[in-house]
Amino acid sequence: MTELFVLAEHRQGEIRDVTFELLTKGKELAKKTSTDLTAIVLGHNAGNHAKRLADHAKRVLVIEDPRLENFNSEAYQMVLSQLISQRKPSLTLMGHTAFGVDLAPSLATELNLPLATDCVDLDFEGETLTVIRQVYGGKVNVKARVRKSEGYIVTIRPATFETEEGTPLGGKIVTIESPLSEDIEYKRFIEYVQPPAGEVDITAADSLIGIGRGIKDADNMPMMEELAATLGGVLVCSRPIVDKEWLPADRQVGTSGKTVKPKLYIAVGISGAFQHLTGMKNSDLIIAINKDPKAPIFRVADYGVVEDLFKIVPSLKSKISEAREAHT
Amino acid sequence: MEIIVCIKHVPETAEADITIDESGKRIEVEDLVFDINEWDDYALEEAVQLKEKLGGSVTAMTVGSEEGDSTLRKCLARGADRAIRLTDKAFEGSDGYATAKILHRAIKELPYDLILTGAQAGDDGYAQVGVTLAELLGVPHATMVKKVEFSGDQARVNRELEGGLEAVIEMKLPALITIQTGINEPRYVSIMGIRKAKSKEIKVLGLKELGLKEDEVGKAGSWMTVERMFVPPVEKEVEILEGTSDEVTTKITDILRAKGLI
Ligand SMILES: Cc1cc2nc3c(=O)[nH]c(=O)nc-3n(C[C@H](O)[C@H](O)[C@H](O)COP(=O)(O)OP(=O)(O)OC[C@H]3O[C@@H](n4cnc5c(N)ncnc54)[C@H](O)[C@@H]3O)c2cc1C
Ligand SMILES: Nc1ncnc2c1ncn2[C@@H]1O[C@H](COP(=O)(O)O)[C@@H](O)[C@H]1O
Fold this sequence. Notes:
- The structure holds 2 protein chains of 2 kinds.
- By secondary structure, chain A is of the alpha/beta class.
- Chain A has 2 domains: 3-176, HUPs (Rossmann fold), CATH 3.40.50; 202-326, TPP-binding domain (Rossmann fold, 3-Layer(aba) Sandwich), CATH 3.40.50.1220.
- Helices cover 29% and strands 28% of the residues of chain A.
- Chain A has 8 helices and 17 strands.
- Chain A has helices at 17-32, 47-54, 73-87, 98-111, 221-231, 239-243, 274-280, 309-327, and strands at 3-7, 10-11, 14-15, 36-43, 59-64, 91-95, 115-125, 128-135, 140-146, 152-156, 172-176, 187-193, 207-211, 234-237, 264-268, 285-289, 303-305.
- In chain A, the strands form 3 sheets. Chain A has a 9-stranded mixed β-sheet with strand order 9-8-7-10-6-1-4-5-11, with helices on both faces.
- By secondary structure, chain B is of the alpha/beta class.
- Chain B has a single domain (2-216), classed as HUPs (Rossmann fold).
- Helix content of chain B is 28%, strand content 27%.
- Chain B has helices spanning 38-54, 69-77, 96-107, 129-137, 191-198, 207-210, 245-258, and strands at residues 2-6, 9-11, 34-36, 57-63, 82-86, 114-118, 141-151, 154-160, 166-172, 175-179, 202-205, 224-230, 239-240.
- At the A-B interface, helix 4, strand 7, strand 8, strand 9 and strand 12 of A face helix 3, helix 4, strand 7, strand 8 and strand 9 of B.
């Protein structure tokens, strides 16, 4: 019986959500291909992690080593390349996250196993592995065949599969001795740096106006600030706005910023790259204003306006202002 | 410090109308505007700033057709000292893995202390080429970097993780770093720079010069084969509000009022 590996991701003592998403998808694939689902966890004092993972897998392999406590791709690669060469899993899944992106390509290259990154779906069609990926900033999907191999490595976009709790699988926990013998001098993890706390907590606001590169110029910021003020909401943004320093980093919504779930999210001039959508798609009501009818933001919005934002924003501001005055 | 920056010439697609062509495996690119990949723009700027601070030189390198010259010229105008284009009929259809193999062959012949790539390309978005290249070269790597410092033969970098958290990593040079946007402020090209860049040579190398075999690159040397392209499915059925700007904003205001949001 072959195995299907899911690599658990943990940071600062917590298993990351993507792990359970991968285990849910892994379970389905393992069933379809009659393989065993095995969760792999590398860490230090990882016993509690292993117990949690055992609910979601047939088997949990634990590799304990103080050098594996904080992620260092070199140490992880040494351990995983041995494990994969020995046990030959049909597939190894990990998240397309800061963790997986740093690890998967070098691991796959060392093992000479085909790699498919940032997949939003995957399936075995007979012997061949097919994957679905998004390209061109989410405007197009690609279905691709992966070259036939005895094993594959796939990184999966986070928040793609929903975690199913299901009945605990009671997986067997097996501890494997760490193959690491000395410290890795040429690449070392030093420390974490926490983001500074912002002056406003954007996750607590009821109404958010999200602005993106479509606002074009710093001179247009006051117009957007005014819209947010009129609405009684908070101005937040996509990444390019922070990169340009038009707003501070604590206003950024998305994977590398904050995850928000307000009552109202109005996206203005934001295309809807997955890194942004992950941070806001669960908002109660989403209104998107974008001149491109094919912008991916419309795929998660409740209402859409396909128009030049510079025509809409001033008019919207005065309409909201009137409505508020009429109300009071 | 000898720095090599890997640059991809990509179509701007955020604002363009994209259509899938007849083959169903590619998009129509004729009407698209190509430019330097957004992440590579920051990587190039970082390389030039490091050179200005520490001395040495910057080499910009791309795998692709002759059309990439406009992007390489831009790199030269912004402070790169040399430009190399890796072009061959056999390279066409290369995926991230095959592209990394081509870059590897060219780079291993050159002196370098540091290699910079973008964190990802805006078109295929593999986020793979840099780390694969590092493994082929046998040098350590760090991805999605927001800050770089050096002392002696050590690089100290801040990697960006999820939620704004960063991890500080130290690596021994030579090393490869993939650059995240926002690390610096890419400069504009000066007229002087453009003029000077015009006369600079762009070195072109192909399959033979790199000592590669046909089946190592292009479709034959790739891990992935495109079967078809399609428009992604919607997660929610959006209601598009039609009418004049005035009508549309009235509708929005009505919706907000009905939901008790204003
Ligand atoms: C590791 C990693 C982490 C990331 N983390 C984040 C994150 O946390 N948050 C985030 O947002 N991004 C993040 N990104 C970046 C992300 O991939 C996109 O590049 C970014 O979200 C694009 O921002 P945008 O939509 O504002 O810009 P663009 O994609 O350039 O879109 C601009 C939009 O404005 C529209 N527009 C232009 N002019 C007008 C007009 N006059 N009227 C109306 N519409 C107009 C265009 O049609 C287009 O859709 C991350 C990327 C990486 C690689
Ligand atoms: N054809 C190419 N030529 C040169 N560099 C490339 C090429 N493709 C990718 N790269 C580099 O690898 C990075 C990541 O690309 P990708 O792995 O395709 O997302 C890019 O930002 C570039 O620095």
